[in-house]
Amino acid sequence: MFNDIGPLELVTLVVLAVLVFGPEKLPKMIQDVTRTIRKIREFSESAKADIREELGPEFKDFEFEDLNPKTFIRKQLDNDELGLKEIRNGFDLKKEMAEVTDAVHSRDTDSSSSSSSSSSGSSGGSIDMTKKPEKTDPDERPPFDADAT
């Protein structure tokens, strides 16, 4: 509950509570707060028990923490009935993209060499398809154009 409160912050809260409520009322206030927290916890546990009872025996291992999407996904990935770890480990996006890029670049060079031999006898009024695009470094990002976005 107080995982992210440090010792200095805790001392500050105690001093502040003594100043606000006074040393006479502080023990009574602490009792009231702890009693309220205890009642809220009891109410929450009874509500959870009622819900589990109403759901029936099919949901005997149901946990309310599973309703959190992160917990649900983590539990399903750890279960690995579908072989998701094997699929996730076997899928290398960078490798796949590099293969696609290489295939596209090799196709471009093949098509440009065949089009240059066929376009040499064409009329001068057509668009020249033999121009190769500028070669860029794969790690280099393209220039950013703020007007285009």
UniProtKB/TrEMBL annotation:
Under the heading InterPro entries, the entry gives:
TatA/B/E, TatB
Localization annotation: Cell membrane; Membrane
- Which family, according to UniProt? Belongs to the TatB family.
The membrane topology noted for this protein in its Swiss-Prot or TrEMBL record is: Single-pass membrane protein
Q: Which UniProt keywords apply?
A: Cell membrane, Membrane, Protein transport, Translocation, Transmembrane, Transmembrane helix, Transport
Q: Which segments carry the region annotation Disordered?
A: 99-149
Complex and partners: The Tat system comprises two distinct complexes: a TatABC complex, containing multiple copies of TatA, TatB and TatC subunits, and a separate TatA complex, containing only TatA subunits. Substrates initially bind to the TatABC complex, which probably triggers association of the separate TatA complex to form the active translocon.
Function, as annotated, reads: Part of the twin-arginine translocation (Tat) system that transports large folded proteins containing a characteristic twin-arginine motif in their signal peptide across membranes. Together with TatC, TatB is part of a receptor directly interacting with Tat signal peptides. TatB may form an oligomeric binding site that transiently accommodates folded Tat precursor proteins before their translocation.
Name assigned to this protein: Sec-independent protein translocase protein TatB
> Chief subcellular site?
membrane
State the species of origin: Streptomyces mirabilis
Instruction: Output compositional bias ranges, type Basic and acidic residues.
Output: 99-110, 129-149
Q: Which domain of life is it from?
A: Bacteria
Task: Please give the coiled-coil regions recorded for this protein.
Answer: none
Name the residue ranges with Low complexity bias: 111-121
Its gene? tatB
One Pfam family it belongs to: TatA_B_E
